[in-house]
Amino acid sequence: MKKLINKTDDVVRESLEGIAAAHPDLVRVSYEPYYIVRADAPKQGKVGIVSGGGSGHEPMHGGFVGMGMLDAACPGEVFTSPTPDQMLEATKAVNGGAGVLHIVKNYTGDVMNFEMAAELARGEGAEVEAVVIDDDVAVQDSLYTAGRRGVGTTVLAEKICGAAAEEGQSLQQVAELCRKVNANGRSMGMALTSCIVPAAGTPTFELGDDEMEIGIGIHGEPGRERRKLAPAADIVETLTVAVVEDIPFEQGDQVLAFVNGMGGTPLIELYIVYNELRKLLDGRGITIARNLIGPYITSLEMAGTSITLLRLDDELTRLWDAPVKTPALRWGA
Amino acid sequence: MSVTSQDVRSWIERYAAVVAENREYLTRLDQAIGDGDHGTNMNRGMQAAVGKIEGLDDADPGSLLKTVGMALISTVGGAGGPLYGTLFLQMGTVVTGKAEIAPDDWAAALEAAVKGVQARGKAEPGDKTMIDALIPARDAFSGALGEGASLDDALRRSADAAEAGMEQTTPLVARKGRASYLGERSAGHQDPGATSSYLLLRAAADSLGGPAGSQ
Fold first, then answer.
1. Predicted complex ipTM exceeds 0.85
2. All domains of chain A, ordered by start, with CATH?
3. How many CB pairs under 8 A join A and B?
4. Which long-range contacts (CB under 8 A, 24 or more apart) does B148-151 make?
5. What is the pLDDT at residue B213?
6. Is domain B5-209 given the CATH code 1.25.40.340 in the classification?
């Protein structure tokens, strides 16, 4: 294992110390228990938005804490859900009296821990709503699985709901908006290489030099199938067709196209992916009205990409365009 | 014969030691069908649990079990934290206020633990989860008591049933947790959660009853 770390046990803490040192104008970091919170939290009268999940997906979620996006993020150990005590403390830290929304990715551990945290927070008098994001079309048979995973749409939901909360929308409105984003967003990813969890020290899965995994999850969980490596055009077509035909996205739709890097894939390749995606959507009469390209929901050093499409309307477009100022996403502010 | 506070401590300490010994084994099982952190997470949680009960000299068995549950919930993370945390909290709640846990109380505690884990994780038997070790263990324990078995004997039969249940997870296709994303590819691997649950019940048999307990 070759990694820029000191000790495996210190990875999460030292990374948090780095974030705190780099962005004191935007965020504060609590170490007992771990959470990253907006420097100006709690904002009186504003709905607080809390997300969280295992570490190793940076910049999600800690990099999205700041004006116009998250109020707090709870990092777990690498690829391990955070714990209810973290979520409870983060919820209390951002509750400005208008209630708190938990945005939860549909992973068994994340869901259970956030459920316990919401029960505890309500027990202490906080108003809490939770929305589970489950946008990964790679998981087909929901009856016999833990359901579709929460992936790329999570980033878009955090941005859009953050903007709505900033405008002063109520907890019910922001939660409803989050469900709307989830209903209109779909994703699928693929991996060229595995990743190495620091504490494990060995690759999470084995993939031959000439193989790729289609439908990968963000922790290296396998997806639909393993295939021989193919040109970018073929890979993008596989992902795009699966995503487009799921909702389905149709001729005349305006979409936000999010081409995500898994951590080990350079931007030059992500732009090749975007170019192929653009051509495919053009051919189907689907218009890319907004885009986001880069590594935003990563899987450590895994090479690969995921494609997320979000069907836009005027409300979602306006909220996407609204100012945001976080360590990883900022415009208009 | 019944289970005292000292017995509960021995059980928790023994389980922590067993998890530490099997940390890499559990992680290897989890790498095959999950995300490769089960051994690491359970080890972190059990070390924390042992630390938390060290200071509680006068605590009754129920308080000790609840303390272990809270320690696991706040340190393990993943699905294991809420599930094992709930298991211990439920056991502790059933025996609240009792100076010792009688065999019938242990049966009730196991019953509550299984109910709590199922309520939290929504798993059914055959889903390839810790439930596949816990339910046979619960049933074997009650069955043994019903036949007039001693606590030692019932604990051993409970652990044996958990072991068989764990082994029977190997051919199953996972329907819960991250392993479920593998579909058919999850068959042929023993479930890591069922394995850590078996180790918990074997630790109970070894530390609460029988010759190993008197060591």
1. no
2. 8-183+321-331 (3.40.50.10440), 185-313 (3.30.1180.20)
3. 105
4. B150/B1, B150/B209, B151/B1, B151/B2, B151/B3, B151/B103, B151/B106, B151/B208, B151/B209
5. 40
6. yes
